[in-house]
# Entry
Amino acid sequence: LAKITQPISMDSYEGQEVNITCSHNNIATNDYITWYQQFPSQGPRFIIQGYKTKVTNEVASLFIPADRKSSTLSLPRVSLSDTAVYYCLVPNQAGTALIFGKGTTLSVSS
Amino acid sequence: GAGVSQSPSNKVTEKGKDVELRCDPISGHTALYWYRQSLGQGLEFLIYFQGNSAPDKSGLPSDRFSAERTGGSVSTLTIQRTQQEDSAVYLCASSLAPSIGGRGENEKLFFGSGTQLSVL
# Structure
């Protein structure tokens, strides 16, 4: 059973790059790793997903080392509006649903 | 509708009462999920529906919790004999296909804004 561990909180300033690392030991061979963002009083929304090495989209980058036991979400040049909770997700043991980590609360200050 | 709709947005009930929470998924989405988010906690998976297949109920915390999905669309989560520890935000999500495709790439989940349940 994959256990997900990520930092509870992080602080940053506008314009900085933020890296949030998630540990997910024992994920299955073919499982993808997904990250979601959640603002207060809203449901989470998809940011990025990947399987290995590096994935980049218009919002973020995701780095996954060869052993795939962790992943790092990278947010370039954060702004105040990036203040949110960021969740790392992997499939459950049965492979039927995505399991959320506890989430990392990112606070961006000016 | 344009997105996942949940109702009511807020529900206050007394301990011991039954409650029903409703979810309207995005049209055409075959997969539907219920999650629970307690104050300051992450999201806890409850139940998953995919088409006409038997639902995955492995996340339901007790037999007081049940859910159904009629006609492959609207879903209702029912909590019987509510307890104070049931107080949480109940989130529904839908996706075009199962969130996990043969343990490969995951479909995007689209979440509603949730129902805030308060049990007094």
